[in-house]
Automatic annotation (TrEMBL):
Protein name as annotated: HTH lysR-type domain-containing protein
High-level lineage: Bacteria, Bacillati, Bacillota, Bacilli, Bacillales
Organism: Paenibacillus oryzisoli
Matching InterPro entries: LysR_HTH_N, WH-like_DNA-bd_sf, WH_DNA-bd_sf
GO molecular function: DNA-binding transcription factor activity; transcription cis-regulatory region binding
Top-level lineage group: Bacteria
Pfam families (alphabetical): HTH_1
This protein's UniProt keywords: DNA-binding, Transcription, Transcription regulation
Annotated family: Belongs to the LysR transcriptional regulatory family.
Residues of the HTH lysR-type domain: 9-64
Entry-linked Gene3D superfamilies: Winged helix-like DNA-binding domain superfamily/Winged helix DNA-binding domain
Length: 93
């Protein structure tokens, strides 16, 4: 379960980064991985949600309406993970 969760969070991080910079190559550079890794992660998210998250227009991409919805929730999820991390670290204090 933990490994699946971490892999899912990696996909969400890739999605958010791609939504911000709108470049698979730049996303790969920012996340220190290969462009095919980012492509695979986004394809897996699209399969999971059964939705097209980005329109691919040659080398240019843009978020779809479904992508915009996921971006809103993805940002909330990452905030919750960060909040949980802080709470866990300070729980004994």
């Amino acid at each position: 379960m933990g490994v699946i969760c971490l892999k899912w969070l990696d996909k969400i991080e890739a999605f958010i980064t791609l939504a911000e910079c709108l470049s698979f190559t730049e996303t790969a550079k920012r996340l220190y991985c290969s462009q095919p890794t980012i492509t695979t992660q986004i394809q897996q998210l699209e399969e999971q949600f059964q939705a097209t998250l980005f329109l691919r227009l040659g080398k240019k991409i843009e978020l779809t309406k479904q992508g915009e919805v996921l971006l809103e929730y993805a940002k909330k999820m990452t905030c919750l993970v960060e909040e949980a991390t802080v709470k866990i670290k300070t729980a004994d204090q």
